[in-house]
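Onboarding guide, step 5: your first structure request.
Type a short instruction followed by the sequence, for example:

Predict the 3D structure of this protein.
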Amino acid sequence: MRGIQSSACKVLAVLIFIGVIAAGMISLQRTHIESAATSVENVYDYYNIIDSASVEKKSADELFSLYRKSGVTSLAVYDETPEKLVNHDFLRVYRGSEFAFRNSGVSGISDSKIYIQPVLTKKGEAYFRETREYLSLLMKKDDVRSFEVNGVDTLEVDAVYNKFMQMELGIYAETVKDAASRGFYVVLRPGNEAHVSKAYVDLFLKKLDASDRVSAIIFQGKEVLGYKEYVKYLSDELNKRHIPIALIEAQNQLGFERQAGNLEMAVFSDYNVVRLYAMSKDELIKLEPKEAASRFYISDIERNIRMNLFPSFKFPLNGMSLSETNASYIAEVSSRLENHGFTVGKASVMEPYFPPNALRGIAIAGALSLVVLAAILLFPVLVKYVWVLEILGLAVTEGLFWGLHSVMVLQFLALGAAVCTPVVVVSLFLAYCLRKKDRAFENVGWGKLLLESLVILWVCGLLSLAGAAFVSGLLGDIRFLLEMQIFRGVKLTFVLPLVLISIVYIRNFPFFGKVVSSDKDFIRFVKKFCSVQIRLGLLVGLGLLAVVGYVFIGRSGNNGAPVPGFEIALRRFLENVMYARPREKEFLFGHPAVLLTMAALYRKWPQILHYFLIVAVTIGQGSMVETFAHMRSPYILSFIRGLDGLAAGSLSMIAALIGVMILVRLTKFFGERYGKL
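The system replies with structure tokens like these:
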């Protein structure tokens, strides 16, 4: 490990330090942007409330008041269909034969046609007029006829009855106005029509203008309204009205649900968008209300979600009505958000932040220097070419950034920093271990061992947080904060550091009596490793390693293995008692392994055990850095999560020390009692 002390490494360390400062300044600016956007909008389906009122024998006003008190701020209004308009007693729709029977004295009625009349109320007539507007745009001129039957306005439509009843017509101004009159904001959920015309888009805008309380647009289906021809036009019109669009977070929490045209609209609108979390009804029924509330709460505070679209339970729970059941879990979300310092209201729109290019350029230089330093630690022979690597790397990365404004180079260096930070940090720890390995355990008491391990843990942890600043700084712009662009290579950030630190380890610690310092040594190491006798204990150890690997790798990323119930309970407890829940692989696994590593060193435990403990330490440090790869999480929350992990890991370290003390006592007892048998 003499390479760490070389002059080249010291220069690289200075460049890394300067890069960390630049990346930290970007992260600080990013924090200001995130902390200014703390208002969350709670959205519920308008018609769910209307329909529940009739079922539960309550007035609509009572239920609207119930949901308002629970923290619902906005009502979602969807495209109307003829079936919905009939069910809500606004229109009458008849098959031709039925209409002819009801109007036997009227000639010219066709059995194959559909006939529409308003319910004879003020609202019915208003909905009828809007229906006529939409049908004139959505159907051929010859397929729709307007006339009077016995003094009642009537529409004749040439269509298949069942399909027509499910036909999405569009947003109705009457529905928008009624929702707004209840004291809520209104969120519109339009779908797109095949071969949509500009006139149809203009009609949608007319309905939108029916109320000044429209707060956002959430598109339905696979396309945004107006795709393809009128995406920019609609985006410009929404911008004039300062109405954001919502990007629906993907089910795997990686990016957002792709709707053709939504990315273009986000760019055209200068990123006037909000991140939305929605849960399907099928997923909701698997959860208790408390767990469902936690899902929404966590998404808001940890993933920059600023709009919640709440589904409804299918059945009432805990002796409450269905509306009370739904309102109760929404109320818990609202209460927890407010206790955390958030506001429940109209969704905050994050400022379209892009960091100064100069700061990013310096951060690029620092991240590249970190990668070069890791390469030297892995392969000391490269120290002779360090400045060739540095200058060539800077020419390529800075050239791509300044010349082509490449996002890829930012992603590549962020990945490099995420992989190399734990490698460099743990390599420094290994250098410390090399200096200490010949000391006798008798000279190191339990208290001193704990204190030494705590200092090592916190120094390593703070260095890892410093390296993590590169990930945050390089990717710290609005595209990544909204997850329109994402960090690439999450799985690699878990696997590669383990492989690389293993290389560093065998180069400095003797396996089979000798370190690996040349190609011949490596070949010898592989041969001896492959000739190791397979014993039951080894098989058990490998089995445990496989289980740990499954938990570690399989549970990583956004599509991880299922989490058991007891762990979910632990997570919820930590969420309630700490600002940011630490990651289990850090405070239960990686961080206490620091103390076990030092105990293994001083006690001269088997070398293979010391190696696996170093791997565990690497996992803990790598996890701290990987936290910052989730750019949708606020920077300050990720930073505090790392500190909380170190604090919880310090407590776990005390438990590990007690375990070691008990193990030593037991070993000594049984050794003295049965050692001579």
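Each response can be followed by summary notes, for example: The first helix runs from residue 7 to 35.
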